[in-house]
């Protein structure tokens, strides 16, 4: 019978170091021995060191029945143990083999029972002691709230239970770079807490083994590996030691541990949702072994962490999440009018930043940008939206490293992280976070984690703290922040839809009003053309007809009087036609509104009407008038008509006096579906009018007095009404019979008025 060892002697190089077959080393650590037994209970694999424990060599054992070497009683005891699956993983089998007491772990691999035996601990801790320590730990664990506090407690508890010099809770990031998240160590040791280690320190195949085998023990880092031998009966024969307790470690890992001065290690895997979340890494600076009870108690420490990760992380985020939820509730409960100006109140609300814990935010609607906080320039925002659209983002996009997706924005510290949300076909909302320059302390240069020399590959031998400065990144967006931003984006989208519908309704209402007024105007114009225009025409016809019939006898003086009457009638017709032309030329001009200083308009009006004012001995007093959103030449026409109206209807008992007052600051004036921001009041001491005529005096050609009492077409105040409608404002009159008249005009809001309490 030919016997061979299965030691893996393949060289590790740069092309295969990440695929080093560490699960089939073909050798074990020397603090125990290993047997590979077939399903027929023949010894097919055996470590060379069995001779250390028994008076029989590995060559003598191989190929024999297990019972032939160790007796049928031992075989029956092991068979009974292997049938008790619920106990096999927790407690090793205590058994006597050839007069010596051992603790045995057994598992199956590729149809082979792998039996690993260690001498029974003579002074091992009792299970009751480990149980007592565990109960104490659970009691303390319930007093912690955060994940970091729990991990710190586990590090302390594991060190107390195991007696290792240093215990670290090692947490992985998304790329499997590690961070020492918690630590407990001897006072004389340099702490590693907070240090980071590159993913190459624990390569992919090692992480895979940590998932499969959750406890890993190296008793003496300076051990000499013991080869495994087998019967040479087929090519490529090997033994998978993934679940082995005694499996020999990768030479690169051993050298790594020697470089940091470690003498023995215990590693416990922390598995969360099927992934390797982290490790409990225990270091001792001399050789050290621990009993099965202590191994089990240490393994339970890992179970405590993994069972609490979701709960503790949720608890860590709970307070901030509650603040976000409160801000979202406050923001969505704002009492907002359904007008586009409401976006000014939204963008100014501090809760808009708080829902995502952002430093800046911008809303883009109908090609207008509203901003608050620390934001990019308007051009950069528009460029960013264009780039996001080119990525064909359907609705939402978030990142804490904008340059990773859009390198052209590198160097702009105003924003490194964004949450973007589309809000309709032409709307966007973006939350911003600035660049957060962070310093990461690595346990050695991560770029030099593997060193190549003439003798092959080696782990780094320098673990001096190496600092890395990370730029172009913001703090990471939490999921609850992204969710809150998304929820409010939908709320804002609905608000914009309501505003659009309201504007369409207002447009329809205005068009209906304009149509109604136009029909009324047409009726009035038709009436004046058939009545007021025909009356002077009839006079002209009557006078000229009489003159023609008396041409031979009429005197020169009579002809002169008749022609004067004809001229007056013709002038009246001309005035009526001119007023009608003025009235019909006034159109809706809201799209061309601009800032108009009413003080300048009043000054020009008084100058233009100086003769009429002087002839009437009128006094005009005025406050400072505001700047309004209107059209200059129409305002002059408006002021002229209002002042002319006051002079025309002055009281014969007193000199005319006109007092002009106005709002000094923008104020909100609600009138049904309209909102106004400024008012101006013209108060005179004229004859006034009865309250029942309050609305009718603004109708075209409406006159409260006869032509003989007061001349004119009755179109002046109708012109005023139409002018204010044209600029989006309104006009009202209040009459006090015998005392005077107040004319009040209201002006629309300027979209740039951001100080308004909407």
Automatic annotation (TrEMBL):
Domain Phytochrome chromophore attachment site: 146-303
One Pfam family it belongs to: PHY
InterPro entries listed in its UniProt record: GAF, GAF-like_dom_sf, HATPase_C_sf, HATPase_dom, His_kinase_dom, HisK_dim/P_sf, PAS-like_dom_sf, PAS_2
PROSITE patterns in the record: HIS_KIN, PHYTOCHROME_2
Keywords associated with the record: Chromophore, Kinase, Phosphoprotein, Photoreceptor protein, Receptor, Sensory transduction, Transferase
GO molecular function: phosphorelay sensor kinase activity; photoreceptor activity
Catalytic activity entry: ATP + protein L-histidine = ADP + protein N-phospho-L-histidine
SMART domains, A to Z: GAF, HATPase_c
EC number(s) on file: 2.7.13.3
Domain Histidine kinase: 528-751
A biological process term (GO) from this entry: regulation of DNA-templated transcription
Family designation: In the N-terminal section; belongs to the phytochrome family.
PANTHER family in UniProt: PAC DOMAIN-CONTAINING PROTEIN, PHYTOCHROME-LIKE PROTEIN CPH1
Descriptive protein name: histidine kinase
Species of the source: Flavobacterium potami
């Amino acid at each position: 019978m030919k016997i061979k060892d299965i030691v893996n002697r393949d060289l590790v190089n740069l092309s295969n170091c990440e695929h080093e077959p560490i699960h089939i080393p073909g050798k074990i650590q020397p603090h125990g021995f290993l047997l590979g037994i077939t399903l027929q209970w023949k010894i097919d694999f055996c470590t060379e060191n069995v001779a250390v424990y028994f008076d029989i060599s590995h060559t003598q054992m191989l190929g024999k029945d297990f019972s032939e070497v160790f007796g049928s009683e031992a075989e029956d005891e092991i068979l009974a143990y292997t049938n008790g699956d619920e106990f096999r993983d927790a407690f090793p089998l205590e058994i006597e083999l050839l007069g010596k007491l051992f603790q045995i772990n057994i598992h199956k691999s590729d149809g082979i029972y792998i039996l690993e035996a260690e001498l029974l601990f003579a002074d091992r801790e009792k299970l009751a002691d480990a149980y007592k320590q565990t109960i104490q730990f659970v009691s303390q664990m319930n007093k912690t709230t955060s994940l970091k506090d729990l991990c710190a407690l586990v590090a302390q508890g594991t060190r107390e239970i195991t007696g290792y010099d240093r215990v670290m809770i090692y947490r992985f990031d998304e790329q499997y770079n590690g961070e020492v998240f918690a630590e407990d160590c001897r006072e004389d040791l340099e702490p590693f807490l907070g240090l980071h280690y590159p993913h190459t320190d624990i390569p992919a195949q090692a992480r895979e083994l940590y998932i499969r085998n959750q406890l890993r023990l190296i008793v003496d880092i300076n051990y000499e590996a013991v080869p495994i031998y087998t019967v040479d009966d087929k090519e490529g024969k090997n033994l998978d030691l993934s679940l082995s307790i005694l499996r020999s470690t990768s030479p690169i890992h051993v050298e790594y541990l020697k470089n940091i001065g470690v003498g023995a290690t215990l590693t416990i895997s922390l598995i969360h949702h099927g992934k390797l979340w982290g490790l409990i890494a225990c270091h001792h600076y001399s050789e050290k072994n621990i009993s099965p009870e202590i191994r089990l108690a240490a393994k339970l420490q890992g179970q405590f962490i993994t069972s609490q990760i979701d709960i503790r992380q949720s608890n860590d985020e709970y307070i901030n999440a509650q603040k976000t939820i409160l801000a979202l509730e406050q923001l969505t409960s704002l009492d907002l009018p359904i007008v586009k100006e409401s976006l000014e109140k939204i963008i100014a609300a501090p809760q808009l930043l708080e829902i995502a814990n952002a430093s800046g935010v911008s809303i883009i609607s109908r090609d207008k940008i509203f901003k608050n906080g620390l934001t990019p320039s308007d051009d950069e925002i528009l460029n960013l939206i264009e780039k996001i659209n080119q990525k064909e983002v359907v609705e939402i996009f978030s990142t804490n490293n904008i340059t990773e997706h859009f390198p052209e924005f590198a160097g702009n510290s105003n924003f490194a992280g964004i949450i973007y949300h589309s809000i309709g076909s032409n709307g966007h909302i973006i939350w911003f976070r600035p660049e957060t320059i962070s310093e990461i302390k690595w346990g050695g240069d991560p770029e030099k984690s593997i060193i190549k020399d003439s003798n092959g590959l080696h782990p780094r031998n320098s673990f001096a703290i190496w600092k890395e400065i990370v730029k172009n990144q913001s703090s990471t967006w939490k999921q609850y922040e992204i969710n809150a931003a998304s929820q409010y984006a939908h709320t804002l989208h609905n608000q914009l839809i309501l505003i659009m519908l309201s504007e369409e309704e207002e447009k329809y209402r205005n068009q209906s009003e304009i149509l109604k007024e136009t029909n009324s105007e047409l009726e009035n114009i038709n009436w004046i053309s058939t009545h007021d225009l025909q009356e002077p025409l009839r006079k002209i016809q009557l006078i000229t007809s009489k003159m023609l019939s008396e041409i031979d006898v009429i005197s020169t003086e009579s002809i002169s009087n008749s022609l004067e009457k004809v001229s007056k009638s013709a002038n009246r017709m001309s005035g009526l036609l001119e007023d009608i032309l003025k009235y019909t030329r006034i159109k809706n001009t809201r799209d061309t509104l601009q800032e108009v200083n009413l003080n300048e308009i009043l000054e020009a009006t008084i100058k233009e009407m100086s003769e009429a004012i002087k002839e009437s001995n009128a006094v005009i007093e005025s406050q400072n008038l505001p700047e309004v959103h209107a059209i200059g030449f129409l305002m002059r026409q408006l002021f002229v008509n209002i002042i002319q109206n006051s002079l025309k209807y002055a009281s014969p008992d007193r000199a005319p006096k006109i007092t002009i007052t106005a709002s000094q600051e923008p104020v909100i004036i609600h009138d049904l579906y309209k909102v106004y921001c400024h008012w101006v009041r013209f108060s005179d001491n004229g004859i006034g009018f009865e309250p029942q005529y309050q609305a009718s005096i603004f109708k075209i050609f409406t006159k409260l007095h006869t032509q003989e009492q007061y001349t004119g077409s009755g179109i002046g105040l109708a012109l005023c009404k139409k002018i204010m409608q044209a600029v989006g404002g309104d006009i009202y009159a209040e009459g006090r019979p015998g005392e005077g008249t107040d004319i009040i005009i209201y002006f629309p809001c300027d979209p740039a008025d951001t100080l308004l309490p909407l």
